[in-house]
Structures are given as structure tokens and as C-alpha cells.
Design goal:
2 copies of one chain form a homodimer. Chain A is 30% helix and 22% strand. With 138 residues, chain A is of the alpha+beta class. At the A-B interface, strand 6 of A face strand 6 of B. The complex binds manganese (II) ion (2 copies) and zinc ion (2 copies). The first copy, chain A, binds a DNA duplex (30 and 30 nucleotides) through helix 2 and helix 4.
Chain lengths: 138, 138
DNA sequence: ATTTTATTGCAACCTTGTTGCATTTAATGT
DNA sequence: ACATTAAATGCAACAAGGTTGCAATAAAAT
């Protein structure tokens, strides 16, 4: 109810109608504190149509509010974007880390900036997916 | 016909029967010289069942002959493994690069080894997918 | 309060990939 | 070359994940 106001604002800033579906979905995703698997969103909210959920997720992604954080091929994970993302462009410089123990997927920063070159190629963007053991499991 | 012998050998080494399906699929994939999209394999070879193609690709992957080279979420790409891969383990230390101009996906080495750390985390493995402009388009 | 415009639900569909089972094919030993 | 064995194939059926068209509904703007 109270926090709702913040989410409402966020949606309006990105020129999305603040519908109850979007508010609910957004609350679940941002309350999760790590990347959330699609099924987890679905289970938390079985009061609207499958199709609506897909469409909601798509519009949240297009407007730079959330992003996919897929590691491995299986289920799709979603995470809230940093404030630097907008409707125009997603702008992440972090790593998607999957803990092989607890299976959690998180967005983490590397300790120092990662740079590499490939002769003859122009690198415009890159994504890193890492697996290992996370902080809590260590 | 002549090269067939090499592919036959390769399959036998990995303890796979050298069936004509496998020889055909393998010839297409290794003749492509970059990562090949699934649909491209399908189009080159419409003489056997869809299911067989899936099963063939799976056994080639399990035995360390080819690997997935997916960049972005859309279609799945496959590429031949370096000789270092076996039935036991895939062992790639390269980058999957997608050219935003010609759309080709290639397996490339970075100019120098890539290393990074994440405080509190143990990193066991990572994958890098990069986008940009490839050699031929540059 | 009314109009405008975006979002939702539903049903139908598509793509990608998998499974069970009977049939065929490749490898192995004679 | 022939029979035996074990693996691979085709077919039909299924399942998960995701999309589309369209009429009904809800949010925003006037
Ligand atoms: Mn992320
Ligand atoms: Mn590769
Ligand atoms: Zn963990
Ligand atoms: Zn190119």
C-alpha cells in the first residue's frame, strides 16, 4: 500500500499505466532480492492469465525496469534493473552468477572492471554468466 | 566420401555408431566454419525426422564433438568443439561472438586470458557472450 | 462524466523439444 | 558372408513456453 506509491511512480516515469497486474508483478520481483525464476512469479500470483503475465514482463523489460538474467539454459530468471536502465537502453556491466549449491541467481559486480579485446573485432557489448558458490553458501 | 572417413573415425573414437544421419549432420556443421543455427542444419538436411535431428545433436554434444554457442535468446547455434573436449567434459575457454551486422556467431579467443573475481564468491566456470562487429565486416 | 487509449482475458495457435514403442541399421563375432 | 546384439531411427503423441487476434475492461486525459 505504502510502497505501492513508489512502484506507481516508477511505472509512470516509464510511461506505463499503473495497472494492478503490473504493481503486483513488480512487487513480487523487487521483493525477491535476487533474480527470480518465472515460475516463482507465477506461483506468487495465480490470479491473472498466463498471457497477461508474459505481456507484463515484456513491457517491464522494454521500459528498462527489469531484465533477463538467464544462466544456463533452463528456466528464465528476471531481476530489477539498476537505475541506469531506461526505455532506450539496458546498460548492465555486471555478472550473472548462479550458485551450484543453492541455485540462486544474482546480479553481482566483479571486483575490478573486466576488459578484453579480440583482434579484428569491435566489441560493443558483452554478458558474463558465471557459476560457482555464492557468498551465503561459502 | 573421402572426408567421410575422418568423420567416421571421430564418431568411433567417441563410441558412437557412424550412422548416415550422424555423418550428414556432422558434415554440415563442420563445413559451416562458424556456429550454425539449428534451422540451417534442418534446411540443409530435410531427409530425416525432426526427432532424429534432435537426438543426433544431443549425442554429438554429450560426446564432446559439438557444443551450443547461444548468443542472445533466439535460435540455438552449434559449433564443433576444439579437440580438447571429450565425452567426459567440455572444456572451452573462448568467447561466443555475434556480429550485429552479418549476424554470424563465432567462437573466438580473447587476445589475453580473462580473469576476474567476485568478493565472497568461488567462481568455478564462466561463459562470455559478446556482440559487436566481426573481422569480415570490419 | 465522457472520451481516448492501453491493458486484460480468452481461445487458439506456434515453436521447440521430449517420450514410448515398434522397426531398422550398424557393429561384432563366427 | 551370416546371425546376433545393441544402438539408432521414424512415427505419433505429448508438453512447456510463448505468441496473436479480438472483444471486453480499466486507466488516464479532457
Ligand atoms: Mn542482472
Ligand atoms: Mn564455442
Ligand atoms: Zn548459494
Ligand atoms: Zn559480421
Amino acid at each position: 500500500m505504502e510502497e505501492n506509491i513508489l512502484l506507481r511512480q516508477l511505472l509512470r516515469e516509464r510511461k506505463l499505466k499503473a495497472t494492478s497486474t503490473r504493481l503486483d508483478v513488480l512487487a513480487v520481483i523487487s521483493g525477491y532480492n535476487k533474480a527470480i525464476p518465472f515460475s516463482e512469479i507465477q506461483n506468487s500470483l495465480h490470479d491473472f492469465d498466463r498471457v497477461t503475465l508474459y505481456r507484463t514482463i515484456n513491457s517491464l523489460m522494454k521500459s528498462g525496469i527489469i531484465h533477463k538474467a538467464s544462466v544456463g539454459e533452463k528456466e528464465t530468471f528476471y531481476a530489477v534493473c539498476s537505475s541506469k536502465c531506461s526505455s532506450d537502453s539496458h546498460n548492465h556491466k555486471h555478472i550473472h552468477f548462479k550458485c551450484s549449491n543453492c541455485k540462486a541467481v544474482t546480479c553481482v559486480q566483479a571486483d575490478s572492471a573486466i576488459n578484453f579485446a579480440i583482434t579484428g573485432h569491435t566489441i560493443n557489448n558483452f554478458e558474463i554468466e558465471a557459476t560457482g558458490i555464492c557468498v551465503s553458501c561459502n
